[in-house]
Amino acid sequence: MSKFLVNKYKALEPYTPGEQPRERKYLKLNTNESPFPPSEKAIALAAEEAKRLMLYSDPECKELSAKMAETLGVKTENVILTNGSDEVLNFAFMAYCDENTPAVFPDITYGFYKVFAAVNALPYKEIPLLSDFSMPTDALLLEKGTLFIANPNAPTGLLLPLSEIERLVASDPSRIVVVDEAYIDFGGESAVSLISKYDNLLVTGTFSKSRSMAGARLGFGVGSPALIADLHRIRYSTNPYNVNRMTAAAGIGALSDPEYFEENCKKIIEARAYAVEALASLGFTMTDSKANFLFARHEKIGGAELYAALREKGVLVRHFGAERIKDYNRITVGSMAEMQTLVKLIKEILEEKL
Question: What residue segments make up the domains of the chain, in order of their start?
């Protein structure tokens, strides 16, 4: 770092993205991207909008907001569009946490939560997951800060039932609950259905996973009109043109092709089921993931060792070094063919090392 960096950022530990190597071609199962290309409708609309890149994008995202609201069954004033869901999550940290209202989230969850708190100089509290990695709902009920819940959780993939989400939201109307639903389309029930009932609930989502648009950077938030107005206040104070023209157009195209979206989600769920059965037969234990990834360990080979062996064979998975999860790897669910390749290579590794 330079000598000019102000003190408050000198100890900042940035978020570490998944590897995006260029030195060789890998089977990428480390960043929870979709194995399928975007909808042809998304591609066509984005290409057409590229002709107008000399113009600023619509700061209100009127057309996309209307399409998003229609898709979710809410009103446009209930929706904000952002540059990936990370942006709306950061807005929520800025809007609903301060020295008197800490951020509260599990100790094993999306790594950006801690970074958002740190970069905004906000106090935060981590609540340990239970021994089986399930959400400590009863402990969270006792907390007074703003709750951030990834559902399904990452990297465990475990889903908290909607009834438990509602219990958290209803328990304290004076507290905001932010539900990060990046992976909800792979087997969960969205909390968006609760926003008309509770004005202290903010639900966030992304086009990166189930809609095959990780490279486009498009996310959204859904909540009461007052909450969404709060987030727009921050957005207009930081980057009012946060969603570029091509991304907004691609988003409209993706939402206009529900059949493609649903078919791809179905394929991922089928490939996940295959991988779970195949890996279990090889001696792996896994959480009951409802996301587009598996969280898996093998008692006879460490997580770091398996990660390195797979990388050597041209497969990238995600390994985390934290003590409680160091024996696990997070494995993105790709296409059925990619999962078959993964299983074949893991068999080879186990035969070589055990």
Answer: 18-36+259-353, 40-256
Give CATH for domain 40-256.
3.40.640.10
Q: What is the mean pLDDT of residues 8-15?
A: 89
| Residue whose C-alpha is closest to residue 353's, from 293, 285, 282 | 282
In this prediction, residues 222-238 reach a mean pLDDT of 98
Shared fold status for 18-36+259-353 and 40-256: no
Name the CATH topology of 18-36+259-353: Aspartate Aminotransferase, domain 1 (3.90.1150)
Question: Which 3-state string (H, E, C) describes the chain?
Answer: CCCCCCHHHHCCCCCCCCCCCCCCCCEECCCCCCCCCCCHHHHHHHHHHHHHCCCCCCCCCHHHHHHHHHHHCCCHHHEEEECHHHHHHHHHHHHHCECCECEEEECCCCCHHHHHHHHCCCCEEEECCCCCCCCCHHHHHCCCCEEEEECCCCCCCCCCCHHHHHHHHHHCCCCCEEEECCCHHHCCCCHHHHCCCCCCEEEEEECCCCCCCCCCCCEEEEECHHHHHHHHHHHHCCCCCCCCHHHHHHHHHHHCCHHHHHHHHHHHHHHHHHHHHHHHHCCEEECCCCCCEEEEEECCECHHHHHHHHHHCCEECEECCCHHHCCEEEEECCCHHHHHHHHHHHHHHHHHHC
pLDDT tens, 324-339?
Answer: 999 999 999 999 999 9
pLDDT at site 70: 98
Q: Can you give the pTM of this predicted structure? A: 0.97
